[in-house]
Design goal:
Elements lengths: L8 H20 L1 H29 L4 H23 L1 H29 L4 H20 L1 H31 L14
Helix pairs in contact: 1-6, 2-3, 2-4, 2-6, 3-4, 4-5, 4-6, 5-6
Keywords: Membrane, Transmembrane, Transmembrane helix
InterPro entries: Acid_resist_chaperone_HdeD (IPR052712), DUF308_memb (IPR005325)
Pfam family, one: DUF308
Length: about 180
C-alpha cells in the first residue's frame, strides 16, 4: 500500500539535489551570485518601501502613523534605488555590515567564554572563529565585497540541500517522529 508520508520523497530528493548542485554552482561563481543577490535585495527593499508608502496613504488612522509609514517607505524606496543603481556599493555596504557583525559576535562570545564556566570551550572556539572571519572579511575588503554574499548563499543552499536529504521534509516537522514501518495484522 502507498504510504502518504513517503509520497513526496522523490520530490524531496530532487529538490535536495537541485539545492546542492545550485549551491555548488553559486560557490563556483561567487561574484555573479553576490551581484545577483544584491540586485534581488535591492528590488525587495524598493518593493517594501513602495508598499509601506501605499499602506500609509491607504490607512491614515493618525497623522503619526501616516507620516511614519510615508517617511519609512520613502527611505526604503530610496535605499532600494541606490542599491539597484550601483550594486557594488550595495555589496560593499552589506560586506562591511557582515564583517562588523562577525567581529562583534566573536568578541561577545569570547567575553562570555571568559565569564561562564559552562560551555566555555565551545563559546571560546566559536568566538575566535567568528572574530577571525570578521578580520578576514574586513582586512580583505575588496575581495570580500565581490564574493562574500555569493559564498554565504552557496554554503546556505548546500546546507539546505544536505539537511533535506538527511532529514527530509517529514523529519523537520516539530513534534513528529520519523515514520517507522508497522506490521498489519
Amino acid at each position: 500500500m502507498d504510504d502518504p508520508s513517503t509520497r513526496h520523497r522523490g520530490w524531496e530528493i530532487a529538490l535536495a539535489v537541485v539545492l546542492v548542485v545550485g549551491g555548488a554552482f553559486l560557490l563556483s561563481n561567487a561574484v555573479a551570485a553576490t551581484l545577483l543577490s544584491i540586485v534581488l535585495i535591492g528590488w525587495t527593499i524598493l518593493a517594501a518601501g513602495v508598499l509601506l508608502i501605499v499602506r500609509g496613504v491607504l490607512r491614515r488612522e493618525s497623522s503619526a502613523v501616516f507620516w511614519s509609514a510615508l517617511l519609512g517607505g520613502a527611505v526604503l524606496a530610496v535605499l532600494g534605488i541606490v542599491v539597484l543603481r550601483n550594486p557594488v556599493v550595495g555589496a560593499a555596504t552589506f560586506t562591511l555590515l557582515a564583517g562588523a557583525m562577525f567581529l562583534v559576535v566573536g568578541a561577545v562570545r569570547i567575553v562570555l567564554a571568559v565569564q561562564l564556566k559552562e560551555h566555555r570551550i565551545v563559546l571560546g572556539l566559536v568566538g575566535v572563529v567568528s572574530l577571525v572571519m570578521g578580520l578576514v572579511v574586513l582586512l580583505n575588503f575588496a575581495v570580500a565585497t565581490l564574493t562574500l554574499l555569493g559564498i554565504l548563499l552557496g554554503i546556505q543552499m548546500i546546507g539546505e540541500g544536505v539537511v533535506l536529504l538527511v532529514a527530509g521534509r517529514r523529519g523537520l516537522r516539530p513534534g513528529r517522529a520519523a515514520a517507522t514501518p508497522t506490521a498489519r495484522s
